Please model this.
Amino acid sequence: MKPRQSFQPAWREDIPADGTYRSIFKYDPKKFSHPSAAWYEMFKKEFGMTDEDFKKRRPGGDERVVLQRKPGLSDSHINAFIGIVGKDNVATDDYSRVRYGHGKSLDEDLAMRNKATDRVPDLAIHPRNKEDVVKIVAYCNAQKIPIITYGAGSGVVLGIRSDQGGIALVMSTHMNKVISVNENNQTALVQPGLMGPDYEAALNRAPEIYGTTHRYTCGHFPQSFEIASVGGWILALGSGQASTYYGDAYDIVLSQEYVTPAGIIKTRDIPGTATGPKVNDIMKGSEGTYGILVEVTMKIFRYMPDNRRRFAFMFPTWEAAVNASREIVQGEFGLPAVLRISDPEETEIGLKLKGFNDGVLDKFLRLRGLKPMERCLCIGTAEGEKGSAKHVKKMASKIAHRFGAMSLTGYATKQWEHGRYSDVHMREDLLDYGIIIDTLETGVTWDNLHRLHQGVRSFVKSRPGTICTTHASHFYPQGTNLYFILMLKPKDGNEFFEFRKQIVDKIVEYGGSISHHHGIGRMFAPWMENYLGKEQIQVLRALKRHFDPNNIMNPGKTLGLDSKE
Amino acid sequence: MKPRQSFQPAWREDIPADGTYRSIFKYDPKKFSHPSAAWYEMFKKEFGMTDEDFKKRRPGGDERVVLQRKPGLSDSHINAFIGIVGKDNVATDDYSRVRYGHGKSLDEDLAMRNKATDRVPDLAIHPRNKEDVVKIVAYCNAQKIPIITYGAGSGVVLGIRSDQGGIALVMSTHMNKVISVNENNQTALVQPGLMGPDYEAALNRAPEIYGTTHRYTCGHFPQSFEIASVGGWILALGSGQASTYYGDAYDIVLSQEYVTPAGIIKTRDIPGTATGPKVNDIMKGSEGTYGILVEVTMKIFRYMPDNRRRFAFMFPTWEAAVNASREIVQGEFGLPAVLRISDPEETEIGLKLKGFNDGVLDKFLRLRGLKPMERCLCIGTAEGEKGSAKHVKKMASKIAHRFGAMSLTGYATKQWEHGRYSDVHMREDLLDYGIIIDTLETGVTWDNLHRLHQGVRSFVKSRPGTICTTHASHFYPQGTNLYFILMLKPKDGNEFFEFRKQIVDKIVEYGGSISHHHGIGRMFAPWMENYLGKEQIQVLRALKRHFDPNNIMNPGKTLGLDSKE
Model:
């Protein structure tokens, strides 16, 4: 039953004006996805708010971008860059500097709403090809000018903040093409600034475009799919929503070419080798600190959407959902593509927000012993060849039932698919009224999952008025991830940032990784040395010194590499 | 029809006497597998030999090991080592120095037959635990004493030759245990000197030993399985005969602990992370040059041998066998475990050696259009959960038939399984009469497979009296490997080594990797810089300088790391 809504907040529906901060920080300027009436009622209740609180939006973000800090680079430098890429591809205006100096973290969103945006590059450069990149790196290395590589700006870990000025190298303006598809090798040679949707569309239409026999898919669908670039997937070690089957970004790269101050690293297109430590893998996850990815050969997969099978279950407990998932991915019958289990709070909020929490479904679930704040939702898909997809679904269902689950048909999965890229658009609506949604995520082994989940959750919930939902959505035979979504109405940004810092401390204390697929950037850099251990961070720093002796590549603490030793 | 044998060479059946060279170089001192009559006839014919040539064995290998070079380490050093590991675990005798200073390459075999064994360590040390290793590394680093880590000595690339003396650290004497099995995480914590058969037996019996619910398998079965250690699999980037399903050694490692001169690297047991370049992966394939593996958490797999399905096909051509294999591993229906296709020469020799080349089977094959020196054998297995294994076999068969193959039932696969670890024992029999069997192997993409195969093969066959059989046996959606087996009777070892060098040149010229799964060692080190490119070898050297500033870890050109820059 949908709650009746007495008052409807005036969620913004206007496309932000050109040149404004909001046109930068809004996730996708042209897309909107507002909180439903149910969401709205929940926020009022959880945060002790009233309709009154939603009658006036907080100001911020609609001003035109104006920087206090002028570009620190001399005209001779600027002319040198113009000499390389042409006048049209060098931008010194304030808007470009802010736009290409910010990602999509909550921190950057709040900063832009407050016009606190002085840690930006001196100028933005749009290289046309790898030859441009080679010349730019050589020049910057000789002149000791910092280079921050901007893929498409979807990062959420402060990975492209220019603490020391320099240039933002924008890869998605020109270097955004599929160069070729090799059907024999089942690979695509692409440029790093290629956007997910363009890539996927080209692969889906490979017979028409490249004359292939089969259609293909990239297999990588992070929530940021619509606004992220292939280079970002690899450099920040992303993980797509179907990673359980297709692998993480790390796994779907065959070979790469990087321009570094120490020369060009071009690895070979050979799928299996025993020729020493794999430089191809060393470069992945380097977040712009070692060099600039200029070309990459990606593994691709046959695209057979008609074979997709959806499934959804309600488990009696979180423990049952975890145990069944583990059994599914350890069972050696093939892996589901999407697999996602929600903890009791996430399950309950999900039901509530779909209006299912006091209707027929809820009664039915209760009758079946699936009780509120115990039951857990699981959704998934099986892909690939028809018989195999069918078998994986059959086996997953068999296991789910063995662990007491009730089948929900694939409807819940379709619902999730519908919002998979768009739920995130709500963030702006909520921030307009001082409500924060932010996420933290971690990798974990099976035997540490409950301890980590409970430890972090109980800390988060110790703050009154904090919604904390958790799911696991990337599975491996050895473990999974935990993705925490936090919703709260803090006094101010600083209260939240301090709270978030304490949560990360808890994640590390309970043995999780600092990140499963968001990356490190500057946000999590302070934890790196302690997390990896001194011996391991020194390995990464030794590589940094080798590739980038002048420390021009994404300098300023990213990955914790140029912290003092 | 089996050939009648007029004369039976007196293949040796005696277990080599203790203390002799032969007791070291013989693949497994207690196992024998002699050439059949058919093999014997083939060698006579191909190499222009007569029974007369097999009446007298060449001498060599039966002498007791005596070194000309005395240990170069002072008594004070030796006493220091005794102080660390105890007197029983330090060996300075000639036999230990030769035994723990040699692997199983043809080169080392011939050298030992000729008593040319002076490039050996000064002494062998058998550490009892990782604390011993820490102390030994600290001492050697302070005193600049080379350390060569000896796993079990199965390597074939001169990876443990002591060009500069120093110590051999023998991991398989004491550090050879399964420490624990974690069923929840589906991992085993093991020591690096653990031998394959001991590991597999422990996992198969996990319910009895560790109280697990399921039985497990390690998933890694190289031809050297019976004589190799887990540490060697990882450090030399091995690949097992079922790698198409289970992955290469690189893939089945969750975390590791290394002792290096720069400190202890202990990576975390987390299956997915986005915390920068993965130090866990950087260490793999380092062949003893960065540090000493002292503990490793391996991924393990459910052991369900009853579900195994075998299949075998005869394809009309090599091209058909390649195309079908590609379709099988790109088809998204799950992967076979073993998959192996033999080129026409390997197929023909295989049939001949089994006596099938002029019998009913051969007639039947010819009638079906499967002609000698065109037809190609394929064998394989499907493993895992029952329904999945059945489905993989069904799909593989369907594809094979589409490419014109005839099914041979699983008999051929069983035959292959029978000899999978033992065919290699023939090497000594043949060397006793001056016949060489050696192998070279390379990784390749699908689109370069035929060019590489034909290019290398035509060069090899340009030498009269050279048998060259080739198979592909490790498959990826992006490509496979090519494994060349060479049989010839050269004038002497040097003629062969020069020939082999030229073949490697051809492999590189035609775009293959220097190695797919044997590793680099000192044998292929001279090709490394050209193969990887200067920029990449410099990355590996930068890591070398970081981990091992005094160049004590497996020094002397291994991996091409301490060649002059």
